[in-house]
Each structure stands twice: as structure tokens, then as C-alpha cells.
């Protein structure tokens, strides 16, 4: 059994290859360009770990992991068009570098390429994995659409936000684990639990991400704090603050979002703290982490097999923040 | 065994249903809107006919046919964005009605929905159909990219144009027939022939389409003649004329394309006729039609089974024009 880091290294080696034919270069170079940036490859590694939770590593897990990573990158290319984002992680986005039409088409062909990897999986497991992949892919599109809708909709409830986050990011983490589990020979009951582990872990991670963007230590967090606040992004913290704050605080918040004063971040953080949004978010994160770990506990395999996934959860969800 | 019209009626009934969940309506309504326009449904019917060439109609052919039709519609939604087309067949396009971001995303989700139909096919046939579908889908993207590239590239050879047309339109017709053939239990050899029949028929059809746009009887053709010439579209006729005409004629053609005079269509047609491009195109069409029919002849089934496909070829490719 391997750790997250060992799986990540193995997958990076496997995935560091050309993914598309040479020609037509106008179609395939943009995809190669985007994939060459690397990345944490969390989802494919979760697929490999989901497999090893139940059995020896099935070589088809690398096909499934590749499909998942290609799918994830397809969503990033199309999301960047929709967000009109000039940069991603400091690199020029595909539509910015190659034009929008090519970005649409190279995203499309990356999604199809993902299915080409699925098609290579042993037919013993492939139909079940294809169904899970399809459902998940459609849910991710739903999440992206809800995210777009919410930006234009002033009243979004916490439940609606959790639903959006679940669809947009958590179901793919969950499906990555379950896909590996299927290839490891897991029973349907165990598949359900590993899926729920991933889904709840994903929500906990997003709560933490929103929290750190507001209250994190900039050195540990790795990016400037307050970005979400500056952009008026709907986050767990903002939605909670709007839900529990006094009418005066609500008016203050809306006013700050409209006026964008220079000290907006500090003022919004003051209101967040006054509403105990920081404490509430820490508890919410713990709640989802605990739910995730409960599902991991329920999985009927030896505890020693669960250790790498427990480590992953602890690595992703920091308790000291 | 059924005729094209009977299959078309059966498929129209089957396909006249909601294709997506109700919610989120912002994601799924645009797809329902686009699919509600109807259409000739040529590809799904070719799938059903490919099945019946070899055996009793397999109910899974309707799943495969739905996947193919959804895939085709996905390409239209994304192509319309790329072409910035305000209308398609007189209807407001998806990106024009709902915005570009929603058009990208509802195209994406339509492609995924296509794969959900593939996933429902009996596992006896599904892996082979998935592979064919994937390869074809990727080729269609290649064809679309080549089409975009060619618009910006002044020197395109006839072979390059045929390659582009083959990828952009013919391979999907070919794969529709072969998918049905697989579900009808066809051998690999027969599958190859039915694929080649569809591919060559598709090329013949495109040659005819280019021909009719220039030389067709407007009443029979159903749309205004000369549209391709007015838009300086690269067509079989233009590429041939540029290849065989005298230096003076070439200069005249380029001049007409640059200046766009009021009588451009008539002047270009005069040059086409002077180069015998009309006669050449008729011969080229016949050549591909003959190749198609030769492959149909090679298929090892009783001739009576081939009758509906021969009728289809005669219906699509008019000999009197």
C-alpha cells in the first residue's frame, strides 16, 4: 500500500506523456499546453487510493484516473472561458492564448479523450464506471451552472450553497474514490461509504477554503487573504453572516459590497467576527469532516488499509486553523 | 424491415420526450429548446437502418440513435457559438437566446447525456460502440478545427478539403450505420463495408451540397443559390476552380472575393463554368456515390435487405442534377 505522495509520484510519471495526436496541432496543442502545467492531481490519486483500500492496484485504475484528471481539466478550460479569466495559477489561460473558439473545441475534445480512457477499462468494471462517470460529469455541469446563477442571485440559502459546492467540486472527489473502489472489487455498500467519505471531505475542504481566504495566515495559506471578500464572492462565511447578522450589520455588508472602500476586507472581517462566522465555519468544517470519517469507519476492511485515507483527510483538513 | 420514412417516424416518436431533468432549469432548458426544433434525424435513422440490414431491430438501437442525435446537436450548439450565428433554420440560436456561457455548458451536458444513452446499451455490444463513438466524436472535433483553420488559410488542397469534410460530417454518418450494424450482429468485415458506404455517401452528399448551392434550381434546392459564393466559402467548386483555372481567371476570382461586387455570384459562376467545375463536381459526386454502392454490394447479406439503404442513397444523391 502506498501513501498519497507515492501515488502522486506514480501518477505524475504515468500522466507525463502526450495526451493527443500530433495533428491537427491547432486542435491538440492547446490541450497539451494546459495539461503540461501539472497540478496536484488530487482526483486521480484518490482513484488509486480508493482502489488500494480494497485490493491490489488494478492497472486499469490508471486509465480511470487519467479519465478523471482529463475531465477535471476540461471543466477548468471551459470554466476559464465562462469566467473570462486571463490567468490560472499564473499561466495564460487557453482561450486567452489560443482564442475562444479553440478553447471551446479543445475542451470538448479533452472530455471525449477522457471517455477514451474509460473505454479501455476491463469490461468487467467498465459499464459501472461509465455510469458513475456520466452521472458525476453531469452533476459537475449542474454545479457550475448553479454557481453562475448564484452570482446573479442576491438571496442564496446555505443549503443551496452546499448543494452547489457538492455538485461543483465534491461529487468528483467522491466519484474518484468510488471508481477506484469499484476497480478494487468493493461491494456496493462499501462503494456507498467511500463515496460519502469523499463527498463530505470535499465539503469540509471547501468550508476550510472559504475560511482560510478570510482568516488564514497568508504565509501558510499561500495566497493573499481576503480575495473572496474583495470580489464579493458568495462564500460560506458571507452567506452565514447575512443569515445571522442584525439588520444594521446586513446593511453594512451590502453597503461595503456596493461601495468597495479601501478597507473593505478589514470591515467585512469585523462583521464576520461579530457574527461568530469564524467559529461557526470551524464547527461546520468539523461536522463534515466527522461525517466523512464516520463513513470511512463504516467500510468493512481492515483498519490498516484505511490509514492512508485518514492521513489524506488530516492533510487536506488542518485542525489547527 | 422498414423504410427511411418509417424509421424516421418511429425515432421521432421515441425522441419526442424530455431529455434532461427539470432542474436546474437554467442549465437544461436551453438543451430542451434546441432539441424541440426537430430536424431530419438522418443519423439516428441511419443507425436503425444499419441494424436492420443485419437483423431484427434491437431496442438498444434507439439508445444508440439517441446518443448519436444528441452528439450531433451538441456539435451544432457549439459550432453556432464559434460561428457567432444568430439563427439556425430560422430559430434563434442557444448562445443568442441564453448567453454564451450557458450555451457552452448546455452543449457540454448534451454531450454527457449522449454518453448516458451509450451506457444503457447491453454490455455485449456497448464497449465496441463506445470505442467507435469516442473515435468518431474526436474526429468530428478535428473536422471542425480544420474547417476553422481553412477559413484562415488561403491555400487549401482538394485532398485537404475532402479530409476536412470527411471528418466534419461523413464519419458520423458512417459511424451511425456501423453502430446499428454492431447491434444487428454484423461481422467486422461487414461493419467495415457499411462504414465505408456511409463515409463515401457523406462525401458525395457534400459535393452535391456545394454543387447545388452554386448551380441548383432554387425551387428544388429550398434555399437561395449562391450563398457559399457570397460568403467566399471554400467549397469543392472554388477549390477546383482555383486549381485548374488560368492565372487570369484566378486573379479574377480573388478580385471578386475581395471586392464583393453586386454581380459577384453571376461572375463567379461564369468562371466556374468556364473551368468546367460544374461537370467536374457532378463526376466527383458520382465517383463517391459509386464507391459507396460498391461497399454496399460487398456486404454479405441478402440483396433484399440492402434495398432501403439503396433507396436512401438515391434519395440523398439526386442523379438528375
Helices and strands in order:
The structure is a homodimer of 321-residue chains.
Chain A: H1 4-15, H2 25-35, H3 42-54, H4 60-82, E1 87-88, E2 91-92, H5 94-98, H6 100-119, H7 126-151, H8 158-183, H9 188-215, H10 218-221, H11 227-230, H12 236-244, H13 247-259, H14 264-274, H15 277-298, H16 303-316
Antiparallel strand pairs in A: 1-2
Helix pairs in contact in A: 1-3, 2-6, 3-4, 3-8, 3-16, 4-6, 4-7, 4-8, 7-8, 8-9, 9-15, 12-15, 13-14, 15-16
Pfam family, one (chains A, B): polyprenyl_synt
Protein name (chains A, B): Geranylgeranyl diphosphate synthase, type II
Cofactor (chains A, B): Mg(2+)
Report what the structure shows.
2 copies of one chain form a homodimer. By secondary structure, chain A is mostly helical. Helices cover 75% and strands 1% of the residues of chain A. The first copy, chain A, contains 16 helices and 2 strands. The first copy, chain A, has a two-stranded antiparallel ribbon. In chain A, a hairpin with a 2-residue loop joins strand 1 and strand 2. In chain A, helix 1 crosses helix 3, helix 2 packs across helix 6 and helix 7 runs antiparallel to helix 8. The model of chain A has no long low-confidence stretch (mean pLDDT 95). Chains A, B: Belongs to the FPP/GGPP synthase family. Chains A, B: This is Geranylgeranyl diphosphate synthase, type II. Chains A, B: Its cofactor is Mg(2+). Chains A, B: Keywords: Magnesium, Metal-binding, Transferase. Chains A, B: It comes from Sediminibacterium ginsengisoli.
Amino acid at each position: 500500500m502506498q501513501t498519497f505522495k507515492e501515488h502522486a509520484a506514480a501518477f505524475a510519471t504515468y500522466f507525463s506523456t502526450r495526451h493527443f495526436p500530433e495533428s491537427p496541432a491547432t486542435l491538440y496543442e492547446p490541450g497539451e499546453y494546459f495539461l503540461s502545467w501539472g497540478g496536484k492531481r488530487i482526483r486521480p490519486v484518490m482513484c488509486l487510493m480508493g482502489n488500494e483500500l480494497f485490493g491490489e492496484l488494478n492497472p486499469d485504475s490508471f486509465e480511470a484516473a487519467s479519465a478523471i484528471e482529463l475531465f477535471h481539466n476540461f471543466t477548468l478550460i471551459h470554466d476559464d472561458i465562462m469566467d473570462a479569466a486571463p490567468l490560472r495559477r499564473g499561466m495564460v489561460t487557453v482561450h486567452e492564448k489560443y482564442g475562444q473558439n479553440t478553447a471551446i473545441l479543445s475542451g470538448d475534445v479533452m472530455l471525449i479523450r477522457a471517455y477514451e480512457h474509460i473505454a479501455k477499462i476491463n469490461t468487467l468494471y467498465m459499464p459501472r464506471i461509465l455510469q458513475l462517470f456520466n452521472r458525476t460529469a453531469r452533476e459537475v455541469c449542474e454545479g457550475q451552472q448553479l454557481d453562475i446563477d448564484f452570482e446573479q442571485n442576491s438571496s442564496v440559502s446555505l443549503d443551496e450553497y452546499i448543494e452547489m459546492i457538492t455538485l461543483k467540486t465534491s461529487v468528483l472527489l467522491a466519484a474518484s474514490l468510488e471508481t477506484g473502489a469499484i476497480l478494487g472489487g468493493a461491494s456496493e455498500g462499501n462503494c456507498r461509504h467511500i463515496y460519502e467519505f469523499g463527498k463530505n471531505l470535499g465539503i469540509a475542504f471547501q468550508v476550510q477554503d472559504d475560511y482560510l481566504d478570510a482568516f488564514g495566515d497568508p504565509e501558510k495559506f499561500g495566497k493573499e487573504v481576503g480575495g473572496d471578500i474583495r470580489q464579493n464572492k458568495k462564500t460560506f462565511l458571507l452567506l452565514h453572516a447575512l443569515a445571522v447578522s442584525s439588520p444594521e450589520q446586513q446593511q453594512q455588508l451590502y453597503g461595503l459590497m456596493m461601495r468597495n472602500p479601501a478597507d473593505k476586507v478589514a470591515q467585512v472581517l469585523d462583521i464576520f467576527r461579530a457574527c461568530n462566522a469564524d467559529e461557526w465555519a470551524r464547527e461546520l468544517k468539523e461536522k463534515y469532516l466527522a461525517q466523512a470519517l464516520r463513513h470511512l469507519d463504516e467500510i468493512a476492511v481492515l483498519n490498516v488499509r484505511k490509514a492512508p485515507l485518514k492521513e489524506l483527510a488530516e492533510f487536506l483538513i488542518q485542525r489547527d486553523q
